[in-house]
Amino acid sequence: EAGVVQSPRYKIIEKKQPVAFWCNPISGHNTLYWYLQNLGQGPELLIRYENEEAVDDSQLPKDRFSAERLKGVDSTLKIQPAELGDSAVYLCASSLGSGGARDEQFFGPGTRLTVL
Amino acid sequence: AQTVTQSQPEMSVQEAETVTLSCTYDTSESDYYLFWYKQPPSRQMILVIRQEAYKQQNATENRFSVNFQKAAKSFSLKISDSQLGDAAMYFCAYRALYSGAGSYQLTFGKGTKLSVIP
Q1: Which of A32, A38, A44, A96 is nearest to A68 (CA)?
Q2: Is the separation of the CB atoms in B26 and B107 below 8 Å?
């Protein structure tokens, strides 16, 4: 069974440019998460989807970040315009969505963004 | 708000020896989940072990075990018979038990970098 797929693995852009990250969750997983991981830190949740609905986006900087999960499967996270401080790893995770301890979150390999 | 603290930025262990990674957390909830995740250089987070706070018995998964002290809000990870493949960043994480906004959110510590010496 394929795991969580993310692309690209690496992205280098100039500041003020737009950038987009793509995530394909594990088949059948209703819940999808985007996390931000700064260097030397643990991941921090940006947004959580239940199917196609964003049910927790309280930590998403909405002035420049946006996300969508059309049809409740794949998801795209966008930054426009990118700033130097956005350089980080962006992780996507998915889970079945039952919410119990066995509702394990499976993580993708992440996208490492470098903003010059 | 819940917080997770890992006070050891780096640890090292000789191959085949045992090492313990520390984690403390702060919460006002009585029921919750605790996790240890491993993140190798490939960046893919892998679940190592989980603990339900309502279970008094410490979780064990092969060479990995935890020492869960609920009153002290402590959740340490013990790795026995350390192997070269255990070298990675290890993150302690907390998640609330009940549904509601933020309940599925994993709150991570800053991580401990474990090196295994041949």
Answers
A1: A32
A2: no
- Using CB atoms, pick whichever of B50, B99, B102 lies closest to residue A101: B50
What is the pLDDT at residue B101? 46
Q: Are strands B10-14 and B112-117 parallel, antiparallel or unpaired?
A: parallel
Residues of chain B neighbouring A6 (CB-CB closer than 8 A):
none
Say whether A91 and B101 touch across the interface (CB within 8 A): no
In three-state secondary structure terms, B99 is coil
Predicted confidence pLDDT, tens digits, chain B (118 residues):
789 999 999 999 999 999 999 999 998 888 889 999 999 988 889 999 999 988 889 999 999 999 999 999 999 999 999 999 999 999 999 998 766 545 678 899 999 999 999 9
Across the A:B interface, residue pairs with CB atoms under 8 Å apart total: 57
**Tokens (6 digits) for A24:** 């394909």
Q: What is the pLDDT of residue B2?
A: 82
Q: In terms of CA atoms, which chain B residue is nearest residue A97?
A: B104
DSSP secondary structure, chain A, as one string: ----EEE-SEEEE-TT--EEEEEE--TT--EEEEEEE-TTS--EEEEEEETTEEEE-TTS-TTTEEEE-GGGS-EEEEESS--GGG-EEEEEEEE-S--STT-PPEE---EEEEE-
